[in-house]
Write a structure and sequence with these properties.
The complex is a heterotrimer of chains A (334), B (281) and C (534). Chain A has 334 residues and is an all-alpha fold. In chain A, helix 5 packs antiparallel against helix 6, helix 5 packs across helix 12 and helix 8 packs across helix 9. The radius of gyration of chain A is 24 Å and the shape is globular. By secondary structure, chain B is mostly helical. Chain B starts with a helix and ends in an 11-residue tail after the last helix. With 534 residues, chain C is of the alpha+beta class. Among the domains of chain C are: 159 residues, 3-Layer(aba) Sandwich (D-Maltodextrin-Binding Protein, domain 2); 213 residues, Dipeptide-binding Protein, domain 3, CATH 3.10.105.10. Helices cover 31% and strands 21% of the residues of chain C. Chain C contains 17 helices and 23 strands. Chain C has a six-stranded mixed beta sheet. A four-stranded mixed beta sheet of chain C has the order 1-12-11-10, covered by helices on one side. Chain C is globular. Classes of the chains: A mainly alpha (334), B mainly alpha (281), C alpha+beta (534). Chains in contact: A-B, A-C, B-C. Chains A and B meet through helix 1, helix 6, helix 7, helix 9 and helix 11 of A and helix 4, helix 5, helix 8 and helix 10 of B.
Chain lengths: 334, 281, 534
């Protein structure tokens, strides 16, 4: 079918899903016991003050009305008022989201940049020592608890070797355009700031990437092996085309499309695992914010974080689906 | 089938690991050098001792033997995994079957709901639910099951869709069998192999998710010897005291590895092509 | 060959850019003295008149000035002049006249006058937060009179023992600045009394100005150059006050030099480790701090006094002190031993399992009947260990204890109502103002209910009477006698398990000089007092 139609259909498919998610999360969060209003107002709050805040924030209305009001706000870009940080949640999101985005993107980058060459190597040297080693590494990578690895890395590199900073993102670069420190420092052409930011993001991103790295490695390997068996590869070989050319130009491109789907889904799991890694490294991202909101029973914070994660996940999947459909026209016919 | 399984060394390793875990869990009270340390017990005099002949893996800050606690922790982790997956399979498989075989409006609704749940990474969903409830191990199990069932629905849905068209189904219909009979007695038995493989692979990741929740303080509470809780408690004393946080993490790692290897082996044996990506990783 | 040349070019360009981007090589800047202080809990109240916990008091003490100040230079908590240059009290103890120091500037540039002092006192009494309840019995809003530009007079409704000491935590706020920045709120003509503004900007006259506040992670304070006490070489110009809740991270930050000072809340074992680390100073001081497990007397089954006493006899105090606290003194009653007015005849509980079992039976319970909830502050591993000890001790008399860790903010929230307050809560309580009243009236009179200090919801009419009489007494001997009688009654009712008067430990890098602990919560971290000597 027409690519454009495919695109539109995919986007439309997203909407009921996100709506459903919002209902789900909304209901879940309103079930939270405890009284966050009291928490927010402080220890000396009187009953009248609590009631007043309840009215002001609309928490005294029926659930359905609350939901509609909330969603109306979300569509305008307003995620409500956080009882914990005493600011608009949207503002909090704008502060914290870029950090998580940066972390997960760098993690994804690491997974691809290290995983792909290793996968190629394993495929090309199939059944040799390198292949077996890579398989073992992949198995280890997938099984490693991310937060445990994070702690071990912190121990080794931050404490014993003093090579990398223990926690946090480091200072913000001089210009804050995107909120992504690496990008911003490059835009400001401040290499020192870039280096500092890079040192801060290196360990968390690596700890986060390990599982995905392993998967990318295995997928590239599997994909390439399959491709190598294909007729066109064999015939290219028999024509005498150099091996390198075959690998890079033909096989990889085809193997890559298969990996593309997994990247989308992996991004979701990177977002999920970010909760634990951000806690260990005190990385001021969305997941870190979310865990605090959960502990504090901050309704709006919890809903907003889950919605944003859901939306990001959905958007990334959408992008990979589109790319996949672009590269492989056969998909569009499903 | 066993012959093929036996051919893969790694799968055998996986089987060995899982078997050890199960045995450790069952026989923990007998095998553990200090079984009472897994419960209400304190011995501060012996707090934070490094690995020694008396305590092979050292002691934690309350003086409890880490090896014993890890062995009992196997019980908790395996129970967690089993309960979560029983719920997830018990809920997800019938739903997927119904959605695929009956199809129509009902099928659409079920799959839409499934999509909604799948729109968020499982940990995020589990976290949101645990926060709504008090932090206990039971609630953690409920929360993870809540996030995990849709994967089985989706799996079974895909399986059944393809099975639906096959000849044996046509034959049964021709013979006049009811839809229910066909669904549960003909189709489902053929769909089991990918489910079994997935359950095996998932065990490891459910355990990992449970440990993650406990690590954040939203799951098992002291003195429960859950591996994630033990890491969180031991973490305070890093870097000087490294054993309290390291060994429980190693236990998680070994457990996940074992189930992965076993699952991989089963997948090869059943010649199953389930989706390459896995929940939780 | 080409590739190598290209690489060299790229590297050279990178180096050149890095060098040019480093301002230190180009400009010469005024010498900045940056100080990084770690705290394990977030600042829960930015309003200095709502501050009661350590982190909030730290922000209040550095951004604002109190009327009088503890005599830190002489190592005591007794009042000495600060914003109030001198004061006079009438013989009947009811009228206090303060002379305000001239030339004190607010961060907004205005001079601090008696007007601000009177307005601030009224504000505290009206907003009813923080320490207002110390002043509320004797002072009404409007009871503070502006005599002239630099004189203020407070007329009390009766003589009041803790009054002067309590003024050490009465902070003066910039009236004009707040009134110019009001937002809608519940205080009538005073609207929100500046609550919204305070989140972005302080209204103080203290040595530091709030440059930035990120509630969840960090407050940045910069030096206020026109601070009335003046500045010397080596003093701090900028403070990064960071919140880090993980103990291992806090330790690592100090050891690696990324932090200059860390708080008192680490486990005793961690401090032992730090003592042996070069470049780090661990300071230990005896305290007037009480660590106790508050028993919610309004929550069944703890409503039964015999049950509470049984629990008090089951706990292993010695073990707690020797093996968990690694030092300090055993608590003897609610008042720390070193506070003047501590009663030597106060009943003390020690571990006696037989007595515990007897009392349990007398209370009407059998082993296995009861399950209690113990809540500890999740950032304080020491409290978890105490919980494990308690669990083990109470198991011996057949009581089950569930241990739950909660973040500090949640503990504070749960404390606001008796129904949500846990059965047992572990709390460190430091003297809030230099008077025995803080550990008696401040914890066991119904007027304090709803705060983390009063999670026992204790109510005893006779004790209340005694404490109120004590406050009114003019004769110091009579005062002390009443407080002592009250203590004895309180301890007998066992509204808490009194565990320890712990050692106060704090750790900082060895180039930080000027640290002094006088025992009043928060005042040891007035960053103005430190000099950095490298």
């Amino acid at each position: 079918m027409n690519f454009r139609i495919y695109l539109v259909r995919r986007i439309l498919h997203l909407i009921p899903v996100l709506l459903g998610l919002s209902v789900l999360i909304f209901v879940v969060s309103r079930v939270i016991p405890g009284d966050p209003l009291r928490l927010a107002l402080g220890t000396e709050a009187t009953e009248e003050q609590v009631q007043q805040l309840r009215q002001q924030t609309g928490l005294d209305r029926p659930l359905v009305v609350q939901y509609i009001t909330y969603m109306a706000g979300v569509l305008r870009g307003d995620f409500g008022y956080s009882l914990r940080t005493h600011r608009n949640v949207t503002k909090d999101l704008l502060d914290f989201f870029p950090a998580t985005l940066e972390l997960t993107t760098v993690a994804m980058g690491i997974a691809v940049v290290i995983g792909m060459p290793l996968g190629i190597l394993a495929a090309v040297r199939k059944d040799e020592a390198a292949d077996h080693l890579s398989r073992v590494l992949a198995l280890i990578g997938v099984a490693l608890p991310r937060f445990w690895l994070a702690i071990l890395l912190q121990l080794a590199f931050a404490y014993h070797l003093r090579l990398l900073p223990t926690i946090g993102r480091g200072p913000a670069p001089p210009t804050e355009i995107t909120g992504l420190y690496l990008v911003d420092s490059l835009l400001a052409v401040d290499l020192q700031a870039f280096w500092v930011s890079f040192k801060h993001v290196a360990m968390p991103a690596f700890a986060l990437s390990v599982g995905t790295l392993a998967q990318v490695m295995r997928l590239i390997r599997a994909g390439m092996i399959e491709e190598m068996r294909r007729d066109y590869a064999l015939s290219a070989r028999s024509y005498g085309l150099p091996a390198n050319l075959i690998i890079y130009k033909y096989l990889l491109k085809n193997a890559f499309t298969a990996t593309l789907t997994i990247l989308g889904l992996s991004y979701g799991f990177l977002l999920g695992n970010a909760f634990l890694v951000e806690t260990v490294f005190a990385w001021p991202g969305l997941a870190f914010y979310g865990v605090d909101a959960l502990r504090f029973k901050d309704f709006n914070g919890v809903i907003a974080v889950t919605l944003v994660i859901g939306m990001t996940y959905a958007v990334v999947n959408l992008i990979t689906d589109i790319l996949y459909g672009y590269f492989d026209p056969r998909i569009r016919y499903e | 089938m066993w012959f093929r399984f036996r051919q893969s060394t790694l799968s055998l390793v996986g089987l060995a690991i899982v078997a050890t875990l199960v045995l450790a869990a069952i026989f923990a009270p007998v095998v553990a050098p200090f079984p009472q340390h897994a419960g209400v017990f304190v011995d501060f005099d012996r707090g934070l001792q490094p690995p020694s002949p008396r305590n092979w893996l050292g002691t934690d800050d309350a003086g409890r033997d880490i090896l014993s606690r890890i062995l009992f922790g196997a019980r908790i982790s395996l129970t967690l995994g089993a309960v979560v997956l029983i719920i997830a399979v018990g809920l997800g498989v019938p739903l997927g079957l119904i959605a695929a075989y009956w199809g129509g409006r009902l099928g659409d609704v079920i799959m839409r709901i499934t999509d909604v749940f799948l729109a968020v990474p499982p940990i995020a969903l589990a976290l949101a639910v645990t926060a709504a409830l008090r932090p206990t191990l039971t609630n953690a199990m409920i929360a993870i099951a809540f996030a995990w069932w849709p994967w089985y629905t989706r799996l079974v849905y895909g399986q059944v869709l393809s099975l639906k068209e096959q000849q044996f189904v046509e034959a049964s219909r021709g013979l006049g069998a009811s839809r229910w009979r066909i669904a549960f007695r003909e189709i489902l038995p053929n769909a089991w192999s990918p489910i079994i493989v997935k359950v095996t692979l998932d065990m490891g990741f459910v355990i990992l998710t449970g440990a993650g929740l406990s690590f954040l303080g939203l799951g098992a509470q002291p003195p429960t010897p859950e591996w994630g809780t033990m890491i969180a408690e031991g973490r305070t004393y890093l870097p000087g005291v490294w054993w309290a946080a390291t060994f429980p993490g190693l236990a998680i790692f070994v457990a996940v590895l074992g189930f992965n290897l076993l699952g991989d082996g089963l997948r090869d044996v059943f010649d199953v092509e389930i989706e390459q990506w896995r929940a939780g990783s | 060959m080409n590739r190598w040349r290209y690489l060299v070019l790229v590297v050279t360009a990178a180096v050149a850019l890095t060098v040019s981007a480093n301002p230190a090589l180009v400009l010469s800047q005024p010498r900045e003295v940056i100080f990084t202080n770690i705290e394990t809990q977030i600042i829960t109240a930015i309003d200095p008149q709502a501050a009661v916990d350590e982190s909030s008091l730290h922000s209040a003490i550095n951004l604002y000035d109190p009327l009088i100040y503890p005599n830190v230079e002489q190592g005591t908590m007794n009042p000495r002049p600060h914003i109030a240059e001198s004061w006079q009290v009438t013989p009947d103890g009811k009228t206090y006249t303060f002379k305000i120091r001239r030339g004190v500037k607010f961060h907004s540039g205005r001079e601090l006058t008696a007007e601000d002092v009177a307005w601030s006192m009224d504000r505290m009494l009206r907003t009813k937060r923080g320490f207002f309840w110390v002043f509320e019995p004797v002072l009404d809003a409007g009871g503070t009179q502006v005599v002239d530009k630099y004189t203020v007079r407070m007329r009390l409704k009766g003589a009041y023992a803790p009054f002067l000491g309590a003024l050490e935590v009465f902070f003066i706020m910039d009236k004009d600045l707040i009134m110019a920045n009001l937002r809608p709120g519940p205080f009538g003509e005073f609207a929100d009394y500046g609550a919204a503004m305070l989140e972005r900007q302080d209204a103080g006259s203290g040595p530091f100005r709030m440059e930035r506040w990120d509630r969840a992670t960090e407050m940045v304070m910069v030096r206020f150059p026109d601070y009335w006490r003046g500045w010397k070489d080596g003093q701090i110009t900028r403070v990064h006050y960071k919140t880090v809740t993980e103990e291992a991270t806090v330790k690592t930050l100090l050891i690696s030099g990324q932090a200059d000072m860390i708080p008192q809340w680490l486990s005793a074992q961690s401090f032992q480790e730090l003592k042996q680390t070069p470049g780090i100073v661990v300071k230990e001081d005896p305290t007037v701090q009480l660590f106790h497990l508050q028993l919610n007397t309004k929550k069944a089954p703890l409503t039964n006094v015999k049950l509470r006493q049984a629990i008090s006899y089951a706990f292993d105090y010695d073990k707690a002190l020797q093996q968990i606290f690694l030092g300090g003194a055993k608590a003897r009653g609610p008042v720390p031993v070193r506070v003047p007015g501590w009663a030597s005849n106060v009943p003390i509980y020690s571990r006696n399992l037989n007595k515990a079992k007897e009392l349990l039976a007398e209370a009407g319970y059998k082993p296995g009947d009861i399950t209690l909830e113990y809540v500890w502050v999740s950032a304080l591993p020491l409290e978890r260990l105490i919980g494990l000890l308690l669990q083990s001790n109470l198991q011996e008399i057949g009581i089950k204890v569930d241990i739950v860790g909660e973040p500090w903010a949640n503990v504070v929230a749960r404390a606001t109502k008796a129904e949500t307050t846990p059965h047992i809560t572990a709390i460190f309580d430091t003297l809030k103002y230099p008077h025995i009243d803080s550990h008696t009236y401040g914890m066991y009179h119904p007027s304090c209910w709803g705060t983390f200090r009063c999670m026992s919801y204790y109510e005893n009419p006779e004790v209340s009477r005694l404490l109120e009489a004590a406050r009114r007494a003019i004769d110091p001997k009579e005062q002390m006698q009443r407080y002592q009688e009250a203590q004895v009654l309180i301890a007998r009712d066992a509204p808490s398990i009194y565990v320890a008067n712990p050692l106060h430990r704090i750790a900082f890098r060895n180039y930080v000089k000027g640290y002094r602990y006088v025992g009043l919560l928060g005042f040891d971290n007035n960053f103005y007092d430190f000099t950095i000597v490298r």
